[in-house]
Design a protein that fits this description.
This protein is mostly beta strands. It contains three helices and 19 strands. It binds zinc ion (4 copies).
């Protein structure tokens, strides 16, 4: 009579010769699988599905899973073979499929979550916060703090010492608010009239800036 054994996992009794021995326990065929990478026999629970739902879906043991051949996507949590690796964010990998949730800074090539990059009109690129700062296209580089007060430069000739400076507050409120337009306006004024006027923040303006001219004669204005 053939020797019968009980599966150590599910309790099913079957012929010993049809069972797998792992360690010193016998398991039935339904409870074990083979690592498609190294061929070792493992309990199904110890195998991980890699490339789930694809033609090249496979079961991989935990030893193989911890090698460079496989990775777990930080976005969908699925495991993939390294040929589906797209990039990494904060040191953890992203699969090709999830790459649509991320964007690459056009200057430093680092990966950021979609929507985090900002358009830089100076370089015509989408950049991360650090590169925006380096590219000098942050509005903070053009619009000064409220306390900014450069020494006055006088424009025009006046024999009665009549010089005037103006302060003009501009704001871009409500639905039409567009940070790129505010930046463009600030950049235009700064590039073309930077010697005659300067821009600064004003607490009464949430999204605009104040244009302040250096003192000029009324004629010069
Ligand atoms: Zn079993
Ligand atoms: Zn393996
Ligand atoms: Zn993914
Ligand atoms: Zn960058």
């Amino acid at each position: 009579m053939k020797q019968q054994k009980e599966c150590a996992y599910c309790g099913y009794v079957c012929k010993k010769e049809d069972m797998y021995l792992i360690g010193d326990e016998y398991y039935c065929l339904d409870c074990v699988g083979i690592c498609d990478n190294c061929g070792s026999i493992e309990l199904y629970g110890d195998l991980t599905i890699v490339n789930y739902g694809r033609d090249d879906q496979r079961y991989v043991c935990s030893d193989c899973l911890n090698t460079d051949s496989f990775f777990q996507c930080r976005s969908c949590d699925e495991y993939y073979t390294s040929n589906s690796y797209w990039g990494s964010y904060l040191g953890s990998p992203i699969c090709e499929h999830c790459s649509e949730n991320y964007e690459v800074c056009e200057q430093c090539d680092n990966v950021f979550p979609a929507g985090e990059l900002e358009y830089c009109s100076r370089t015509d690129e989408y950049l991360c916060i650090d590169c925006i700062r380096d590219a000098d296209c942050s509005i903070e580089n053009i619009v000064n703090e409220y306390s900014y007060k450069p020494s006055p430069v006088f424009f025009g000739d006046s024999n009665v010492n009549c010089f005037l400076g103006i302060e003009l507050e501009v704001d871009n409120e409500g639905d039409t608010y567009n940070p790129d337009r505010v930046y463009e306006a600030a950049e235009y004024l700064n590039d073309n009239y930077g010697d005659k006027l300067y821009l600064k923040r004003d607490s009464s303006l949430s999204r605009g800036f104040e244009i302040v001219s250096h003192p000029c004669t009324p004629e010069y204005h």
